[in-house]
Description:
Order of helices and strands: EEEEHEEEEEHHH
Strand content: 35-45%
Number of strands: 9
Radius of gyration: 24 Å
Distance between the termini: 63 Å
Number of helices: 4
Shape: elongated
Structural class: alpha+beta
Largest sheet: 5 strands, mixed
Amino acid sequence: MQTQKNGQVETKKDFVVKFSGLKSGSYDYKFELDDDFFSGYGNENLQKGKVVFDIVLEKKEKLMKFEADFSGTLNSFCDRCLKPLDIPVSGHETLYVEFGDDGDESDNDSILIIPESEYQLDLSQFMYECVATAVPMRNVHPDDENGTPTCDGDMLKFLSTEEMEPKNSATTVTNPIWDKLKDLK
């Protein structure tokens, strides 16, 4: 993970892979992301959790391929009742790293171009992005076996009364074109 300290970028050493001196071949790495890791990114939806990454580095002369399999649980809040919720995440992602000139950039998000002089790679941003994109768009407590929501009962009652109350007609804006179409039957 990279953090700012006195205007300089600081690398979190726990997630750095030193590839200089490695011969062509396959290498296995295991990383564990925890609350400290997630809190460093400042995303209030991803503050706590535990996710384990198994990464296989396939090193070649001018190319490295990182195959990442991950799974774990994030602690967040239900979008419906706002109570704590454990969200399972898992996935498989691939990152290709090519050696090139300083300043070269790739149009492909899964290809990273680094200078030939580099000897290590910080995988923290890659792993964070893998987890962040694995989080579902909507997070709610699952329904029980009878199809009943398991969210906080008081909040569900509140939400159902809000839906039943009539809307103030003064704040309801309608389009006159659609109103004319409603008259056609």
